[in-house]
Amino acid sequence: MIIGLPKEIKNNEFRVGLTPGAVSAYVQAGNTVLVEQGAGLGSGFTDQEYVEAGAQIEASAAEVWAKAGMVVKVKEPIECEYKYFREGLLLYTYLHLAADEPLTRALLDAKVTAVAYETIVGREGGLPCLAPMSEIAGRMAVQEGAKYLEKTYGGRGVLLAGVPGVEKGNVVILGGGNVGTNACKIAVGMGANVTVLDVNLRRLAYLDDIFDKRITTLYSSRDNIQKAVAQADLVVGAVLLPGRAAPKLLRKEDLPLMKPGAVVVDVAVDQGGCVETTHATTHDDPVFIVDGVVHYCVANMPGAVARTSTLALGNATLSYGLELAAKGVAACKEDKGLLAGLNCYDGKCTFPGVAEALKLEYSDPAALI
Fold this sequence. Notes:
Elements: E1 2-5, H1 20-28, E2 32-36, H2 47-52, E3 56-58, H3 61-67, E4 70-72, E5 90-93, H4 101-110, E6 113-116, H5 131-148, E7 170-174, H6 178-190, E8 193-198, H7 201-210, E9 216-219, H8 222-231, E10 234-237, E11 263-266, E12 287-290, E13 293-296, H9 306-327, H10 330-334, H11 336-339, E14 342-345, E15 348-349, H12 352-358, H13 365-368
Parallel strand pairs: 1-2, 1-4, 2-3, 4-5, 5-6, 7-8, 7-10, 8-9, 10-11, 11-13
Antiparallel strand pairs: 6-14, 12-13, 14-15
């Protein structure tokens, strides 16, 4: 297989789909790897490192896309990259199609075989290719939320840790999964008062146990959400329905209940957001204010810590990528977890959550391959 590694061009996206170490693994497995010039610089990897790993450097993205049978990326292609799509191309990256109808239709129209990191199911369950970015985004959510609580950014002017004689800040986390747990770690470490809401009582019991009763856990009912956010200085939206649009847990009508200058960080923005007033922002212009509440909704948060993110992502995605490079889409037939990652194939939508969100006809991928 000829593997293509183009440079990421989304706003302030400094990650790269393959490290030089990953390139070496692909080459040793008998593949050819084409790397766009400068693709790894944002993560601290030089072209020379890729050459030493066995890659060939190409001068432009167009050459990489045109020559490759399989393209490995980090983020979903943006509109100016749609022109590179073609029938039979295997695209391996984060896609988040349930919240992106134009991209979905472009992939279907071109009959691209699209495998999404975020819906691959691990051999022991879970979402192994999504997990490392969820961990990073969860930890960053509190870090960024703490910054935008500063008065200079329009926040309440609250220090989450407080100081002796002054109350701590209140952090509310909607969702106790991977993102929520990692957000909780940082918020607790900062010394904030932390409340986590989830509908899974077993998960809440687990969090109560591992944080040794240093947090408050609440069932995620409408009433509890409203009461919790009314007291919050920082709300972290950490809800995930794999491959599906996120439910709107914090509604526009709830914002007037919140304190002026409170901050919302919606990590679920890639799946449409779990806050009704969310719209995707960039690292260049990360926040906006609605009804006095500061919204941070950057759709590629881990891109800001590109070195850490690229290394973590490579650890998770390499083994599946090697399967795809060796066997093509047939690898999905042999690996049921990888089959769950197949979102588009031969012009058909092959992931139920995407079909449901975009009102498309769903086709069972097992019957197509």
